[in-house]
Write a structure and sequence with these properties.
alpha/beta, 25% helix, 6 helices, 6-stranded mixed beta sheet
Length: 279
């Protein structure tokens, strides 16, 4: 039987940005435990394109996330950096790929997830085109999915959009494009949590980047010495995931239902640093 949340305190959706390698998975586990101990979490979505060694994802790292209680995983430009991803996309609808990749790309770029409460959460995974590899138009792709849900009578109660992009201007433009048509649009990919969480004029919540979950003292997840060497000398350096303290970044969305209509009543940034390996 569906749970009546109309008389309950806010329920919460947890949005986690790029989870970087093993440190990121450790940070994710610790962060979700802390958030769950303080709030009623009903849905969790993470960006998993850096789950496995900082580049790509695989069945093992995806399973780890689902075992932690993650509901859905979005991705980005590193999606195919690990073996076996095509099979993963084809057999598990909880793992999304960028919607505006080629129509011939396996997997789905959007999904509707029905919770025990009856709440239906739609997730759309987009990728940017500015300073990124070629892809189809994300604006048109988003329109097509939203129009399709509406025409088929499938429109979810809440819609979340992960815009995986490099340029803040492109992300903000998408925010205005979808304002009033989705409930929250958040950015991933740049690995730095931004301080521009706000509600747009049409009612949609917007954040340019959720931020990194992974090694705290790093250059967006990479060992600082490696990154410095490359930037200072222009000579390619070995890629190494940094170690040490763990950083967990998230966007928390407080949802409620009134007279049968769901909405995001409150949005908060969350940032926590944990000792190495949770010590």
């Amino acid at each position: 039987m569906p749970v009546d949340l109309s008389t309950e305190p806010l329920s919460w959706i947890v949005v986690v940005g790029d989870v970087f390698g093993r440190p990121g998975r450790s940070a994710l586990s610790l962060g979700l435990k802390k958030v769950t101990s303080e709030r009623n979490i009903v849905f969790t979505v993470v960006n998993g394109e850096n789950l496995a060694g900082g580049k790509g994802l695989n069945e093992k790292t995806v399973s780890e996330c689902f075992d932690m209680g993650v509901s859905a995983i979005t991705t980005g430009n590193h999606l195919f950096d690990q073996k076996g991803v095509v099979d993963l996309l084809q057999k598990d609808g909880r793992v999304l790929r960028p919607l505006n990749f080629s129509r011939l790309c396996p997997g789905a770029g959007s999904g509707i997830f029905t919770l025990e409460s009856g709440l239906r959460v739609g997730v759309i995974n987009l990728i940017g085109r500015v300073f990124m590899a070629p892809s189809d138009c994300p604006f048109s792709a988003a329109d097509e999915v939203l129009d399709g849900w509406k025409s088929q009578g499938l429109f979810p109660d809440l819609v979340l959009v992960d815009f995986h992009g490099e340029a803040s201007g492109e992300k903000r433009a998408m925010g205005f494009h979808l304002d009033g048509r989705v409930d929250a649009l958040y950015g991933t990919h740049t690995h730095v949590q931004t301080n521009d969480l706000e509600r747009f004029p049409g009612g949609s919540w917007y954040l340019t980047d959720v931020g990194l979950s992974g090694p705290h003292w790093s250059v967006i997840g990479v060992e600082p010495e490696m990154a410095l060497s490359k930037y200072r000398t222009h000579v390619p350096a070995p890629f190494k995931v940094a170690d040490g303290e763990l950083l967990f970044c998230a966007l928390l969305l407080g949802v409620s239902v009134k007279q049968g209509r769901w909405s995001i009543e409150k949005a908060e940034l969350f940032r926590e640093v944990f000792p190495k390996d949770g010590d």
